[in-house]
Amino acid sequence: DGGITQSPKYLFRKEGQNVTLSCEQNLNHDAMYWYRQDPGQGLRLIYYSQIVNDFQKGDIAEGYSVSREKKESFPLTVTSAQKNPTAFYLCASGPVGSSYEQYFGPGTRLTVT
Amino acid sequence: GENVEQHPSTLSVQEGDSAVIKCTYSDSASNYFPWYKQELGKRPQLIIDIRSNVGEKKDQRIAVTLNKTAKHFSLHITETQPEDSAVYFCAESGTYKYIFGTGTRLKVLA
Q1: Which of A25, A92, B4, B57 ranks highest by number of CB atoms within 10 Å?
Q2: Average pLDDT in chain B
């Protein structure tokens, strides 16, 4: 999992601003994922991508957008339309095929005031 | 819809005792069941996983059992140590998409 990086570790924004979270991996994984984690709760899937230039909505995609222009990169934009954006955001990647392991990045803690 | 129920939500054990966490899933097509450990403020770490063609898998003090008929799987930690204290998440998957349980906070008391 050391091959997945997220930046920055902490991010502060004012309400009404869009913000983009970075996720990069050098594990040659085809699949990448974005999750949101709220305090004391589990992980909820925002978006996922199985291949470059293709991605699918997860369970809570409203107010978020993604792109997958390169295999190594899967940035997440939290838009002003997301009503409760303050959370811990985790990116993951994994192989495609017979195994479905997912390996997580260190996370970005976003605070919107 | 698809969901995973995880119990208990919190678990306290004495150091050296065993801990068991159970998950129940609903999607009969699920065939991959990973367990993650997450320490405070850190990333979830994959600690063990099991596939549907296997009933039990063990890795040192950690084991996972799967009952496909009943649609439940369990994490067993033996000889618990203080460093086992963390939040543990189960998940189930039939494809690339995971459904996670809500987590169990394990406290190992010294």
Answers
A1: A92
A2: 93
Cβ neighbors of B78 (< 8 A, separation 6 or more) are B18, B61, B62, B63
Residue of B nearest to A94 (CA): B96
Which amino acid is located at B72 in the chain?
H
With 0-12 / 13-18 / 19 or more C-beta atoms within 10 angstroms meaning exposed / middle / buried, residue A93 is: buried
CA dist B84 and A10 (Å) reads: 26
Chain B residues with CB under 8 Å of A107 CB are: 42-43
With b for 16 or more beta-carbon neighbours within 10 A and e for fewer, the A11-50 pattern comes to: bebeeeeebebebbbeeebbbbbbbbbeeeebbbbbbbbb
- B25 three-class SS: strand
pLDDT for the residue B41: 87
**Which tens digits make up the pLDDT trace of B69-100?**
999 999 999 999 999 999 999 999 887 788 99
Q: Measure the CA–CA gap between B73 and B23, rounded to whole angstroms.
A: 5
What is the rounded distance in angstroms from the CA atom of residue B59 to the CA atom of residue B74?
14
Q: If we measure between CA atoms, which residue out of A83, A81, A53 comes closest to residue A67?
A: A53
What length does chain B have?
A: 110
For residue B97, the model assigns a pLDDT of 83
Question: CB distance from B102 to chain A under 8 Å?
Answer: yes
